[in-house]
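ok, trying the design again with the full structure, not the truncated one.
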């Protein structure tokens, strides 16, 4: 009995020692696990901090060159100054805007379009790792559109009135723009499409044709309406030329020049009230006369010359 009691005691001691050993191992493993997790978190936080610093605060991705190209009339320094106000500074007072990843392309695009109406299109491209290329496409300034309320606008080659101006402004005077006056009562606003491309091309072509002849035509055309197929031109001597947009400008101007050189004397040219070329291969004109004779002879003048020039100049 004593033997079995002693054996049972030894067994209990072994079990106790084994349980203590297992408990010690578990404690060591927990300590190791805690250390491992702490070290992992430390490495993760350090990696994240280094990554954030490298991506947003280091010099490697800081924009050090913004290049503006494509502008012809707009001043590069003014463009740079306005855009720089956008990408200088920080988001939330922390993240720099002049960072390659955070550069505000959309905001720069909007601000430039808002401040420089002459810009038709902007393309902003980031060039890794420290450059930004801003490509400007300017509107082609062709004419000034003035409505019946004497509100004048710059018009691009697409026919859109994009900026209200005064006729004595620097931009109008320096570019020697053609003035087109609309006699309709409707007022014009920025962004309105006032002319189609075909009519713009006609007006510009007519102006270019007139530069090659000495007719003393002023740099101003008048339209009775946007849809009218006729244009009125005023000369420096006060007489008016009526032309049609459906007839090639070169043909109209040649016809007019031939008429003035062959049919009228210098004094008669000074007495002109108007010349009408709205009918192809026909020309009608009216001289300044006394009121009594005007009603009697105006029809005769128009009919006879229209017939004569129709044969001579067709």
């Amino acid at each position: 009995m004593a033997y079995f009691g002693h054996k049972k005691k030894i067994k209990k001691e072994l079990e106790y020692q084994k349980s203590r050993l297992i408990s010690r191992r578990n404690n060591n493993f927990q300590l190791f696990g805690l250390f491992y997790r702490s070290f992992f978190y430390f490495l993760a936080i350090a990696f994240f901090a280094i990554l954030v610093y490298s991506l947003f605060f280091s010099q490697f991705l800081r924009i050090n060159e913004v290049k503006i190209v494509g502008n012809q009339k707009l001043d590069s320094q003014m463009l740079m100054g306005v855009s720089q106000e956008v990408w200088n500074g920080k988001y939330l007072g922390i993240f720099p805007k002049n960072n390659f990843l955070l550069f505000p392309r959309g905001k720069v695009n909007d601000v430039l379009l808002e401040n420089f109406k002459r810009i038709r299109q902007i393309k902003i491209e980031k060039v890794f790792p420290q450059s930004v290329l801003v490509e400007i496409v300017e509107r082609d300034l062709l004419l000034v559109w003035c409505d019946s309320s004497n509100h004048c606008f710059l018009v691009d080659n697409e026919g859109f009135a994009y900026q209200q101006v005064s006729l004595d402004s620097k931009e109008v005077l320096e570019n020697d723009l053609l003035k087109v006056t609309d006699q309709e009562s409707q007022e014009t606003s920025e962004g309105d499409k006032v002319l189609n491309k075909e009519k713009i091309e006609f007006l510009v072509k007519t102006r270019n044709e007139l530069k090659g002849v000495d007719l003393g035509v002023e740099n101003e055309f008048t339209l009775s309406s946007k849809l009218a197929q006729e244009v009125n031109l005023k000369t420096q001597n006060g007489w008016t030329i009526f032309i049609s947009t459906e007839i090639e400008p070169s043909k109209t101007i040649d016809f007019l020049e031939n008429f003035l050189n062959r049919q009228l004397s210098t004094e008669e040219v000074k007495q002109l009230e108007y010349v009408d070329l709205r009918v192809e291969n026909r020309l009608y004109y009216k001289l300044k006369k006394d009121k009594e004779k005007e009603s009697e002879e105006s029809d005769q003048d128009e009919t006879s010359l229209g017939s004569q020039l129709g044969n001579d100049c067709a």
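Keeping the full-length input from now on. The two ends are 148 Å apart (CA to CA).
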